[in-house]
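Lab meeting, item 3. Inverse folding demo.
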């Protein structure tokens, strides 16, 4: 029976991989065509498009696997049927349940593998792809380092580190903390704001509490509104953090 399991598994696996390759290839091609429209936005060129769609392949594999598994299994069974191998198996007393069990073993192994891709690989490559794309399309030459963690959105702006706990649909922020350092990497100040809104090309921090750290003391200030000069834009943040059609990964 082990030989039978291997043979059926190999045939079904071939069918699944063929279908998955075709589907991923098609979706990658469609995404490439879609991204071509953005070529020329700042520093976003053909090479950046190729990098972007390549980094998105793990997400396509994860998203398309269920469809590929179903269609590929049918394709594998079809190949067995065309060669009359299913008929021979049934004639020798092998039940349909036994054949299905062999297929399920392959499906289980592939499912575990795909789950690992979806859990550990696709999110990282997807975030890196979005970060690269957003940076290339940004008006600023400086690379924008951004990270999305369990503790919110983190970014680095020159010598400053920024933590944002909430990002609103309109591009505004909630729960902002700014850590400002000097050129010797000494912490100069910590600024906390309840909200931040982008108006007239600049950020406005609302309900601000600022701690200025000096050698001998820490001074606390409370301000209603503060102008925040940052290279982040609402469009940049929304692109980096999430793109609507990629919620599944």
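The presenter then showed the designed sequence:
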């Amino acid at each position: 029976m082990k030989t039978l399991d291997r043979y059926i598994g190999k045939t079904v696996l071939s069918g699944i991989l063929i279908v998955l390759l075709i589907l991923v290839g098609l979706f990658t091609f469609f995404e490439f065509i879609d991204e071509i429209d953005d070529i020329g936005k700042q520093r976003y060129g053909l090479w950046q498009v190729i990098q972007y769609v390549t980094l998105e392949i793990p997400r396509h594999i994860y998203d398309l696997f269920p469809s590929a598994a179903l269609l590929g299994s049918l394709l594998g069974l079809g190949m067995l049927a065309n060669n009359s191998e299913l008929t021979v198996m049934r004639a020798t007393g092998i039940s349909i349940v036994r054949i299905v069990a062999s297929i399920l073993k392959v499906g289980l192994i592939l499912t575990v593998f795909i789950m690992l891709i979806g859990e550990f690989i696709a999110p990282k490559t997807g975030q890196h792809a979005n970060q690269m794309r957003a940076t290339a399309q940004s008006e600023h030459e400086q690379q924008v380092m951004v990270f999305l963690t369990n503790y919110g959105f983190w970014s680095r702006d020159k010598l400053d580190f920024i933590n944002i706990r909430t990002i609103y649909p309109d591009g505004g922020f909630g729960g902002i903390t700014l850590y400002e350092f000097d050129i010797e990497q000494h912490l100069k100040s910590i600024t906390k704001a309840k909200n931040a809104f982008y108006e007239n090309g600049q950020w406005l921090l609302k309900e601000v509490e600022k701690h200025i750290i000096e050698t001998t003391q820490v001074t606390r200030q409370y301000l209603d509104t503060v102008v925040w000069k940052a290279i982040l834009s609402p469009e940049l943040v929304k692109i980096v953090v999430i793109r609507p059609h990629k919620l599944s990964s």
